[in-house]
Amino acid sequence: MTKTPSKTPAAKAKPAAKTAKTPAKSPAELALEVAAKPVEVVGQTLERALDPLASALKRAALKRADKASRQFDEEAKPATPAPAKGALPVSPLVVPFPNIPPIAGVQLATARAGFYKHEREDLMVMRFAKGTSAAGVFTRHGVGSAPVDWCRKHLELSKGADARALVVNAGCANAFTGKPGADAVRRVASAVAKRFDCRQRDVMIASTGVIGVLLDDAKIVQRLPDVEAKLVDDNWAGAARAIMTTDTFPKGAYAEAEIDGEKVRIAGICKGSGMIAPDMATMLAFVATDANIAPAALQTLASLYTRTTFNCVTVDGDRSTNDTLLLFATGQSSAPKITRAGDKRLADFRRKLEAVLLDLALQLVRDGEGATKFVKINVTGAETPASARKIARTIAESPLVKTAFAGEDANWGRIVMAVGRADEKIDRDRIRIQFGPLVAAQDGLISPTYDEDKMSAYMKAQELEVSVDVGVGRGTATVWTCDLTKQYVAINGDYRS
Questions:
Q1: Over the stretch 176-204, which tens digit does the pLDDT of each residue have?
Q2: Beta bridge partners of 355
Q3: What residue numbers bound the domain in which 407 lies?
Q4: What is the pLDDT of residues 226-267, one digit of tens each?
Q5: Would you say 245 is a known binding-site residue?
Q6: Angle CA 426–431–437, to nearest 5
Q7: Domain identity same for 336 and 293
Q8: Does 463 share its domain with 343?
Q9: Per the domain annotation, does 425 fall within a domain?
Q10: Of the residues 282, 321, 324, 394, which is catalytic?
C-alpha cells in the first residue's frame, strides 16, 4: 500500500506549469496585506520592496563588527616579539669563535635594549679596573658619528688615562644626528659614570646601525641596573654577538704574549660585514689586555698596527661614519709597566697584538655581505709601499674584478684594467699576474703557459690569492677582499625595509 504524501505548505508548493496572470494589486491592498503580517515579516517585505540594497548594507555592517571584535580579541592577547628580520645564512667562510679566558680587570655584560624589533641582545657593556689605559683609532669619514666625536674628544682630554667603561649599542648608529645625537651620548655617559662611580670622560661610547636615526638613550639607561648585575669575567662570545648587525657570525681573537718573562693576555672582538673599506675598515673593534702599558705607548701601538690590519681589508669600498678601534690595557698582570712602544721587552707583545688585530680584520672580510670567496691581493714591484697599497686596493674594490671572483672566472684582463686605473707608476711591458701558482700574464701579454682548465679549477676554491708585479720598484702591499655576489645586493637593498 502506497503512503499518500502529506500536504506541503503553500509557500513550498511547486508552481504550476502555467498560471493565470494575476492582476496587479493597488497600493491600498498592499498596505492592508502588509499590516496583517507579523512585524518581522513586515520589515523583510519592506526591505525587498522599498530598498533592495538594505540587506547588503546590513551584511557589510555585520562583517565589520565581526572583524572589529576579532581585532580586540587579538589585541587582548600578549604581544609576541617579531622574529628576526631576514635572518641571513652563516657565511661559508665562517671561522669558529675562539676560547677566550677572562682578562684580569675586564668585566662584560649584555642586554636587550630594544633597538631591534625582534628578540636579540643589542647592548654590550665592559667595565674596567681603575687605572686602565685606553687608546683609539677612528674613522676618517667626513661625517663622523656622535659616539666617535665623544671618544676622540675625551681620549684627548684624559690622555688615555683611567678608562672605566665601554658602552656599545647595535641597531642605531647615531650618526648625522646633530646636537641631539651628541646630547644622547652625553646622557648615556653620565648615567654610566654615576653607576660605576667614575667621570663621564672615563666612559667610551660606540654605536652601529642605521645612519640618521637619533639614539634613544633612555633604552640604554633603563637597562643599566640589569647590566651591572650581570657583569662577569668571561662573556666575550656574548659580547661579540650583541654588537652584530648584518654579521652572520660573532668575531673574536685571542693570544698570549710575554713581557719580560711574564705572561699577558690579549683578547678582542669586532663587528662588521658591509660598508668595509680602508681608513679605517668599517667596523667596531674592542681589544683588551691585562698588560701594564702607558697610554701614550698604547696609542702608538694602536695607530701603528691599524695600518697593517684594519686598513688593509675591503668588502665594498665604502667607508663608515662610525669606525672605531679601542684598545684597553688594565695593568692587572704581573708584567712590569711599559712606557715606550719601542721597548725591547714589548717585542713579543707587539707581534701578538698585530696578530690579534689582523685575525679580527680578516674575519670582517670572511663575513663580507654575501661573500663566497676570500681573496688575498699581493702587489709587488711598485714605486713605493703607498703606491702598492693604492694599486692593491683598486684591484680589490673593482666591481668587475669582484664579480669575476664570484663567477669563478679567472678574468685576468680585469686585473690589468684595475692596475692601470690606479693611476700609479707601472711598466706595462713588465706586468706579471698570477692566480695562486698559475701565471696568467707576463711581460705585457698572456702567459705562454696559460691553461684555462687549470685556471678554472683553481677559481673554484673558497680562498684565492692574486699576485701582481708592476715592474718599477720595490714597493709591496697586501689587501684582503671578497667577491661581490647577488646576495650583497639583496642584503643592502633590504637593509631598512
A1: 999 999 999 999 999 999 999 999 999 99
A2: none
A3: 374-493
A4: 999 999 999 999 999 999 988 999 999 999 999 999 999 999
A5: yes
A6: 140
A7: yes
A8: no
A9: yes
A10: 282
Flag whether 10 is in a domain: no
Q: Binding residue per annotation — 256?
A: no
Residue 177 contacts residue 212 (beta carbons within 8 Å): yes
pTM, rounded to two decimals: 0.80
Q: What gap in Å lies between CA 285 and CA 283, rounded to an integer?
A: 6
- From 366, 391, 419, the end of a domain falls on 366
Do the Cβ atoms of 294 and 269 come closer than 8 Å? no
As a whole number of angstroms, the distance between CA 411 and CA 433 comes to: 11
Residue type at 239? Answer: A
Burial profile 407-423: b = 16 or more Cβ within 10 angstroms, e = fewer: ebebbbebbbebbeebe
Please check if 271 is assigned to a binding site.
yes
Q: Does residue 183 fall inside a structural domain? A: yes
Residues contacting residue 251 through CB under 8 Å, at least 6 positions apart: 97, 240, 269, 270, 271, 272, 360, 363, 364, 367
Active site (annotated) includes residue 132: no
Residue at which a domain ends, from 349, 366, 383? 366
Q: Which residue has the cell 665594498?
A: 316
45 marked as binding residue: no
